[in-house]
Amino acid sequence: MAEAIDYSIFVGQSEDGLSQMSLAIDGIDCAACIAEIEDGVKALPGVVRARLNYSTHRLTVAWREETSPDRVVSQLEALGYRAHPFAGRAEESEARHARWLLRCLGIAGFAAMNIMLLSVSVWSGNVTDITPETRDFFHWVSALIALPAAAYAGQPFFQSAFRAVRSGRLNMDVPITIGVTLALGMSVLETALSQPHAYFDSAIMLLFFLLAGRYLDHEARRRTRATAGNIAALRGEMAHRLGADGVPVLVPVQALQPGDIILVAPGERIAADGVVASGLSSIDESLVTGETLPRPLKAGEHVYAGSLNGEGALHIRVTAGGENTLVDDVQRLLDGALAQKGAYVRLADRVARLYAPMVHLTALVSAIGWLLAGAGLHESVMIAVAVLIITCPCALALAVPAVQVTATGRLFRAGLLINAGDMLERLATVDTVVFDKTGTLTLPEPALALPRDADRTLVGLAGRLALSSRHPLARVVARHADGPAIEGVSEVSGQGVEATVEGATVRLGSLAFCGTELPAGLPEGASLIAFRCGAQTLVMGVEQALRPDAGEIVEALKARGLEVRILSGDRAGAVAPVAAALGIAHADAGLKPADKIAVLDRLKAEGRRVLMVGDGLNDAPALAAASVSLSPATGAAVTQAHADAVFLGRRLAPVLAAVDGARVASRLIRQNLALAVLYNVIAVPLAIAGFVTPLIAALAMSGSSILVTVNALRAARPGRMDEAADAGSSVQTLEEAVA
Questions:
Q1: What is the set of active-site residues?
Q2: Minimum mean pLDDT range among 434-443, 593-602, 630-639
Q3: Listed residue (76, 86, 80) closest to 40, CA to CA
């Protein structure tokens, strides 16, 4: 019988009052599918619109009362396509804006290159023998290139300036817009009057450099948002709710209410907080609490959304659904922690509010002063334009991104992917490094610990039997299978699995189930799983192995004056051995998300700047609350979304590379800012004094940008970042890190 699905929560209202729903379509493999799907859905009575985006495989359908979402989905299935509810994401509009900025940058760059070719001819001709007719022709050709290019490429600045002025305020795009517009207008006038100078090249070069900085800044911000995973995916988007007749109906998790009974099959994630009504199983809560051991369940036990069910089916009575689960509490903690970083934005806004009026006032005073001194209107206006251009914050705008891009590329080759644009600046000031244990100091996948005298044949046979089990410990054993899965396996709920091989009974599960006791020689704190084949028994341990270079990296961090701590949601018995092995004196265990934030707040109250390194859902709020944060690529999507950087591979070397790289980058950023300020201190008085034409102003502005860019390239030189990446091993390539 086909499974019933309640689509009502995904149905909204369109602007014209129609019912509307978006669906993701599986099975589209050619452009011809577009007409087939759209025409097939439009054939339903009441359907007004059906539009399919081939790139995203997203179908938007609008209908009247004559039809329903179920009929739409059924019609798609009849056409041979499978449909799923689609939740639109803000990242799409961010990506479109990034593509638009890139097009503007490309047009400005293309126009600047062609205009500069013409300008070089005019510059050289003005001091030799160019005729006025030839010079005017080159100027008009430059105008034909510059005016439409500026009209398109300048939109990011023009639109921003227009919105600011319309709302009664000024921002940094207003002087840019005025300077570009005046430079182009005066250039057209100069060309029409057959004057020797025009400034089309100045205006377009100005737009090109500013667009480069704006695109880099936007991309740094967009990558942070684009990596944001949907927390709801950790608990599943749909759940099987039992109806009054006991038949399970697939509903969105948002529709679950307290008192509902949901069915959770083996291997599924629990969709809501609740209490086990019936069933026996074990659950993996590592994403929620950080606990590495599966927790046995029976009727009456509490469970949390996002936990992974083990080997048995469960009926769970919902106690918190919708937006009231522990997962949603984590999201609210995230939102609160992220709000603390708004100080950077507020500071930038204050600088912009002060800078823009000062630039306008300086240009206006310069023009009025020259008029009062007896200069003509043309000369006074051109001096004002030169002041507007030369005070353009291009060098200041590039001082930070130029270093960030260069250092980011260097760190990328060391296996570190940076999400936050200001991450390097904040990381350079840290004095404390806080690690989560599970999946961070340890490898994300558990390792199998065997007694020294273990029979490898038994291990391989145990792995074959483990292939038939869903238990988390059995999945570790299954990686050591030496053949195909054993047939005829039966499961004893809460105990293990058993089968018959060549007349002998084989069992895999608890020590009691296999009739054996704890042997000596297994690591302390390891989770145990036993195997019996006839009279032979084998007890295996499953433990989290340390990352290969964890000890060296911790020592290297200490050598750089950093204090290293552990904050873990795992039990104390699992955390203490790791802390002892790494020589970490401060190690806290059994912490919930709010507890980790409390510790970080206490450290910050002591004046510490904290780097948090973690990978689980329970680490996400702490990552957001820390001064700066890193997450391994194997971590949960939500932790990566709120980490300032993600590192690849099995080693911790990128963490040390990040610290060293940040310190180098911070020094270069300070140098660039000093160079930019020095440029303004020297150039602005010269412009006000009338010694600078708009062309010289544009060249000076470009020269200052090139100067800070060249200085930023020093971040790409080999140095401590490479030493950090190589710590304890040969150079790790990106291909090795991804593998």
A1: 436
A2: 630-639
A3: 76
**Which DSSP state fits 439?**
I
Of all helices (H) and strands (E), which one includes residue 132? helix 132-153
Q: How many beta carbons lie within 10 A of that of residue 352, not counting itself? A: 18
Q: To which residue do tokens 């090249």 refer?
A: 201
Q: Which of 163, 153, 179 is nearest to 695 (CA)?
A: 179
Is residue 529 within 8 A of residue 509, CB to CB? The reply is: yes
Classify residue 590 as left (phi > 0), alpha (psi -120 to 50) or beta. Answer: left
Q: pLDDT tens digits, residue range 334-378?
A: 444 444 443 433 444 455 456 667 777 888 888 899 989 888 877
CB 253 within 8 A of CB 274: no
Q: Which two tokens stand for residue 41?
A: 């859905």
The string of pLDDT tens digits covering residues 292-346 is 567 778 788 888 887 778 778 889 998 886 666 666 655 554 444 444 443 433 4
Separation between Cα atoms, residue 148 and residue 141, nearest integer Å? 12
Cα separation, 403 vs 406, in Å, equals 5
Q: Label residues 325-346 b or e (16+ Cβ within 10 Å = b).
A: bbbbbbbebbeebeeeeeeeee
Helix 132-153 and helix 91-126, axial crossing angle in degrees, nearest 10:
170
Pairing of strands 628-632, 610-613: parallel
Q: Which two tokens stand for residue 606?
A: 């002591």
Q: Which of 7, 22, 24, 17 is nearest to 65 (CA)?
A: 17
DSSP state of 374: T
Mean pLDDT, all residues of the chain: 76
Confirm if 687 and 390 have CB atoms less than 8 A apart. yes
3-state secondary structure 96-130: HHHHHHHHHHHHHHHHHHHHHHHHHHHHHHHCCCC
In angstroms, what is the C-alpha Rg of the chain? 32
Contact between 597 and 621 under an 8 Å Cβ cutoff? The reply is yes
DSSP 2: P
Half-sphere exposure of 691 toward its Cβ, with a 13 Å CA cutoff?
A: 7
pLDDT bucket at 384, cuts 50 / 70 / 90: confident
State percent of the chain over pLDDT 70: 74
Residue linked to tokens 């001709």 = 125
Instruction: State the amino acid at position 593 in one-letter form.
Output: P
pLDDT in tens, 616-660: 656 777 787 888 888 886 655 555 556 777 777 778 888 998 898
Whether the Cβ atoms of residue 139 and residue 195 lie closer than 8 Å to each other? no
Rounded Cα distance between 304 and 696, Å, is 66
Residue 719 neighbours by CB under 8 Å, 6+ apart: 660, 664
Contact 312, 494 (CB under 8 A): yes
Distance (Å, whole) CA 718 – CA 691: 42
Question: pLDDT tens digits for 85-140?
Answer: 654 444 555 677 788 989 999 999 999 889 888 888 787 776 667 888 888 899 99
Instruction: Return the amino acid letter for 40.
Output: G
Alpha-carbon dihedral sign for residues 226, 230, 234, 240: negative
Specify the pLDDT at position 461: 92
What's the token pair of residue 109?
A: 């760059």
Determine the pLDDT at residue 728. 35
The residue behind tokens 């047009």 is: 107
Alpha helix segments (H runs only) across 259-325: 286-289
β-strands 432-435, 610-613 pairing: parallel
Residue 144 has pLDDT above 90, yes or no: yes
The mean per-residue pLDDT over the stretch 676-701 comes to 77
Q: How is residue 441 annotated by DSSP?
A: I
How many CB atoms neighbour CB 733 within 10 A? 12
